[in-house]
Specification:
alpha+beta, four-stranded antiparallel β-sheet, two-stranded antiparallel ribbon, 7 helices
């Protein structure tokens, strides 16, 4: 039987301290000494994969740099249709077309929205999953009605209609012009007209007629040609014109 002495105790303490510094622990089992290593268990949590929403998705920048988030169709409805005066009919319409939006469109654009044999309207309705009602010539209203099952379809149809209106505007005739009257030259122009008419008549000049001459009171210089097809457009131009006139006269 071994005796436990102070020297053995000191050596055991030093060994214990040495092993502790190395990250090990000494344990005794049935009189024998064993080393026990420290094991660190790391708990992992498996997050379920998010199901990908059906249908088209949009990728947008997040609030932090480099962050991106996927918007589902429902979330995209809110962003794309924000600010539109979309009406919802909770009584239920055929085909579930409960959402609608009325767009004020001048009749001059109707033929461009309909297209040849209705091809343009059919394409717009198919691409945006909506129904587009265009007034007939005998109708007094100037509102194109968009009906759809979702707000997103309403917003998409409106955007496409705006694109068609913008492109077709280039094919429409001018409706207004801005001119600068030359009233100060009215006397000189009248004298010139009198001399011209005294020397040239329809009898001695082929194709000449006094109706070709603009009355002196209407003499002007055309500055700008415009295509204004709504009262709002006319009002905006009038406001800009008045502002410019006040600025020029004051200076």
């Amino acid at each position: 039987m071994a005796l436990w002495s102070d020297q053995v105790e000191e050596e055991a303490a030093q060994s214990l301290h040495y092993e502790y510094e190395k990250g090990l622990t000494l344990i005794q089992v049935q009189g024998r000494t064993f080393r026990k290593a420290h094991v660190h268990l790391v708990a992992t949590t498996h997050k379920p994969k998010a199901k990908r929403a059906k249908g088209p998705q949009q990728s947008v920048k997040g609030h932090t740099a480099g962050e991106e988030a996927l918007l589902t169709d429902t979330e995209a409805d809110t962003d794309e249709s924000a600010g539109l005066n979309i009406h919802f009919d909770n009584h239920g319409k055929p085909g579930g077309l409960n959402y609608s939006l009325a767009m004020e469109v001048h009749p001059a654009f109707y033929k461009h929205l309909i297209g040849i044999k209705g091809q343009m309207r059919a394409k717009l309705q198919k691409d945006t999953d909506s129904v587009i009602d265009i007034p007939k010539p005998e109708d007094t209203t100037q509102h194109v009605l968009i009906s759809a099952r979702t707000k997103r379809s309403i917003a998409s149809a409106k955007r496409r209609i705006d694109e068609v209106l913008q492109q077709s505007r280039e094919k429409l005739p001018f409706t207004h012009f801005i001119s600068m009257p030359l009233t100060s030259l009215k006397g000189s122009v009248k004298t010139f007209y009198d001399e011209l008419l005294s020397g040239f008549t329809s009898a001695n000049t082929r194709g000449f007629d006094d109706s070709l001459l603009l009355p002196p009171a209407q003499l002007h210089i055309t500055l700008l040609m415009l295509k204004l097809y709504s009262p709002e457009e006319v009002q905006r131009v009038c406001q800009v014109h008045l502002c410019m006139y006040n600025t020029l006269t004051e200076s």
